[in-house]
Amino acid sequence: MQDSEAKKLFQWVQRHAGLSRRKAQELISTGEVTVNGSVVTDPFAPLAPSALRSLALRGHPLPMEPPEPRIYRHHKPDGVLCSHDDPHDGNTVGRLLRMEGFIGYTWAGRLDRDAEGLLVLTNAGEVVNAFTHPRYEVEKVYHVWTSPSPKPAAAPRIFAEMRNGIADDGETLRILDGHLQGRPVHAVVRLAEGRKHEVKRLFAHFHLDVRRLLRVTVGPIELGDLKRGEATRLSRVEEGQIFDFVQSRLAAH
């Protein structure tokens, strides 16, 4: 790499920590990144390769070679906040990741504190981008327990209205499909938009209060029988399939 290949600081952090562009810029702006031992807070500061001797994120030295891209499944328990750090609550996904040695990892698609289920953990920025940006329409499946439970006779109408779109707070919320299953009966919905609190808002429209929310798939990745709090790496074959999936989504848009 020659000096002519100077990059902006956030690009170096993206490359060496496996973060999304937005997260890299945020961490730099808040003083969490040091370059050659000094804090730099301008994400767009130009930096030539020959001038970069060391790079650290939150006190952790970052390897100067790109990390091996990896993808893990994680079963987030309810009660854990999808945040790297929170000044008022230490029970965060970021803290759990650091305790387990996941330095430079983030999650592709958050879950509310009171929700549980599949988080996709990765150090590959393109996976984070493809799985989180609404334009790529990555599908997710949720199991939803409500109070009261939907009446089977009313379910076809409810799911039909959800497919057609529900107007809420200036947005149109919709699912791709839904049905009831299990005992006690609960809803299973598939959607691809990922708006804030979308599932809860959809069911609230029908006066159904979500009591438990479990995400079981994100794109082609499934929660399976993963235990609460557990994280397992995808197989090499599965990782290759996910990177192919990501590239196909990026190329299509």
Structure description:
The structure is a single chain. The protein has 253 residues and is of the alpha+beta class. The chain has three domains: 3-61, Structural Genomics Hypothetical 15.5 Kd Protein In mrcA-pckA Intergenic Region, Chain A; 71-135 and 220-252, 2-Layer Sandwich (Alpha-Beta Plaits); 139-218, Alpha-Beta Plaits (2-Layer Sandwich). 26% of the residues lie in helices and 27% in strands. It has seven helices and 17 strands. Strands 7, 8, 9, 10, 13, 14, 15, 16 and 17 form a nine-stranded mixed β-sheet that branches. It has a four-stranded antiparallel β-sheet with strand order 3-2-5-6. Strand 2 (33-35) and strand 3 form a beta hairpin. Helix 1 (9-17) crosses helix 2 (21-29) and helix 4 (125-132) packs across helix 7 (236-252). The longest helix is centred in the C-terminal third of the chain and has 17 residues, at 236-252. It starts with 6 loop residues before the first strand and ends with a helix. The model has no long low-confidence stretch (mean pLDDT 90).
